[in-house]
Design a protein that fits this description.
Layout: E1 2-7, E2 10-13, E3 18-26, E4 33-39, E5 46-52, E6 58-60, E7 68-73, E8 78-83, E9 92-99, E10 113-114, E11 118-123
């Protein structure tokens, strides 16, 4: 089992920045990749970004490309999401997820573990 705990959410004005963290514990050696997803009120959960832990290769949704940056610290078993130039449409609950094996990064069904989510609210 892998446990994931997100932190760093909050309220920010449009154009501002936030950094989310996702700390993993448990059988973290079994983790192949980590991802961030988000769910806005009344909408389905959507893919944001994914990172492969060994290579560091990343895959971003078009909606956040150039504004968000994912990184990882394999020693601390932590993944970060730096969010810049935030927009009101970025308002959502952000979830961290872990994938044990290779798979399509944006496919929620390929992720084996999920965090509880952290709220990000961007005011206009």
């Amino acid at each position: 089992q892998v446990q994931l705990v997100e932190s760093g959410g909050g309220l920010v004005q449009a154009g501002g920045s936030l950094r989310l963290s996702c700390a993993a514990s448990g059988r973290t050696f079994s983790t192949y990749a980590m991802g961030w997803f988000r769910q806005a009120p009344g909408k389905e959960r959507e893919f944001v970004v994914n990172i492969r832990l060994s290579s560091g290769s990343t895959y971003y949704a078009d909606s956040v490309k150039g504004r968000f940056t994912i990184s990882r610290d394999n020693v601390k078993n932590t993944v970060y999401l730096q969010m810049n130039s935030l927009k009101p449409e970025d308002t959502a609950v952000y979830y961290c997820a872990a994938m044990r094996g290779a798979g399509y990064a944006a496919d929620q069904g390929r992720y084996d573990y999920w965090g509880q989510g952290t709220q990000v609210t961007v005011s206009s």
